[in-house]
Amino acid sequence: MAAAAEAAMESLPPGVYFNPSSEECVTDYLLPWARGERLPETGQYIHEQSVYAQGPDALRRARAPGTTRAFEPKWYFLSRRNRRGGRAVATGGSWAVEQKQRVLLEAGGDDGDVPCGGTRKSYGFFVGKKKKKTPWLMEEFTAGDSGGGEEEEDSEEVPVLCRVYVSPRATTDEKRAIFGEDGVAVDANKKKKPERVVIPADHFDALKNLLTARVSTGASCCP
């Protein structure tokens, strides 16, 4: 998990995380994408990829995740879902509803919270004939007005944004199976491992340049 978080943080300043709210997922990313508009710069963490083409573990391997302050990776996918189709994954497994659809609200000033035009429904990922539950979860966002007009309303496909992540309740063994040793906070002896700090590569370049400048001028590198 740490390696995935590092990949996502490489182009973000220290202390900055890509973790949009549910409402922002709809208003800032799903709606603009459905209308053919250009996404914000942080759109590099929003991937155009169907969540039904591959299982969640395969989807996340080649794509940078967004992260929370706790370095919990979350993957964001823009896709189109068949209005009448199920949620089976082509390579095996399926997404099943775990929380019913909820209308998303945003602050409306003196009028209180108002609908932002989007909805959210939560799913869990299941595999095998006996539908074994995995630690993978997904939130599927839809927009009431995608900007496509009558043509969009008549379409068999619905624009969606899906946020895929591992359950916060996942066991240490489940996290280790997905992310390897970097994905768990304890070692094989169940002792807490030292926390890893992500240091941007340009910090090392700056230090190298500073030391090189001091050597070339004959200055001491220490006061």
UniProtKB/TrEMBL annotation:
Molecular function terms from GO: DNA binding
Key words of the record: DNA-binding, Nucleus, Transcription, Transcription regulation
Pfam family, any one: NAM
Gene Ontology BP, a term: regulation of DNA-templated transcription
Organism expressing this protein natively: Eragrostis curvula (weeping love grass)
Keyword Nucleus in annotation: yes
High-level lineage: Eukaryota, Viridiplantae, Streptophyta, Embryophyta, Tracheophyta
Residues in NAC domain copies: 12-167
Descriptive protein name: NAC domain-containing protein
InterPro entries per the UniProt record, alphabetical: NAC-dom (IPR003441), NAC_dom_sf (IPR036093)
